Amino acid sequence: MDINEFVLSHEKAIRSGFFFGILALMASWEILAPRRALTVSKTIRWVNNLGIVFLNSAIVRLLFPAAAVGVAAFAAEQGWGLFNYVQAPFWLAVLASVVIMDFVIYLQHVMVHAIPVLWRLHRVHHADLDFDVTTGARFHTLEIILSMLIKFAVILLLGPPLLAVVIFEVVLNFTAMFNHANVRLPAAVDRVLRWFVVTPDMHRVHHSVEDDEANSNFGFNLPWWDRLFGTYRAQPRAGHEGMTIGIRKYRSVNAVSWLPGMLWLPFRGRISDYAINRRRWSDNGADEGSNER
Description:
Elements: H1 3-32, H2 42-63, H3 67-78, H4 82-85, H5 90-114, H6 116-126, H7 141-158, H8 162-179, H9 187-193, H10 200-204, H11 211-214, H12 224-229, H13 253-256, H14 259-264
Helix pairs in contact: 1-8, 2-7, 3-7, 3-8, 5-6, 5-7, 5-8
């Protein structure tokens, strides 16, 4: 059995094994060294956050049974995509594919903040009133479907090796749960680590109720894109213990922490003119404009 056959045969088991293993690891770490005190019942949040994860997984499997690795196999069979045209060493094709796909995730994340109708979907992720490992997998079903379609398009254009797709999925899964975890890292470790991977303290800023903080630190895995494109913010103004998590407009537990409320959230309210950095901020962080999130 060659590597492609192995990946195709075991992709689901590999991804599931890593998901549950990382979830258990980060959940244990949160108990041993929490960064912040939670404000909402952990039972309510975990049951509903994981509920939407399992709902999304079932729908994705129903709509896209081949998943991303199946699309990569199809692209290879048809000879589609950059790395099916360009002869490159296997290791380079794998490494370049993972980095390029991560960059696309960064761009996609910026896009769902910048386009009002997509922000309505993405605010399900941001409306969580606390920030822990389950927040990293809490997304509206329609956003998950959109994300899959974007991923398929990138795979067809890029033609990545099957191994690269599985590595990317596993690494993204790991880092999403790691950088959303309610864990405490020594400050010196965090300062060094955030040059190589998005850390919890780096990403937590992105979940602030303050618009300029929420519109920063878009990276999920590699931190370089935020630094390169000027969307990096080192710390929240109020500090990690003092900052407020979520969206200012949606603070009801029933509306944002229960599964029915999460599924309905994109359809609540009018579509506003929300867009990245529409507000003007003074040097001390005071709001000089008004905009509805």
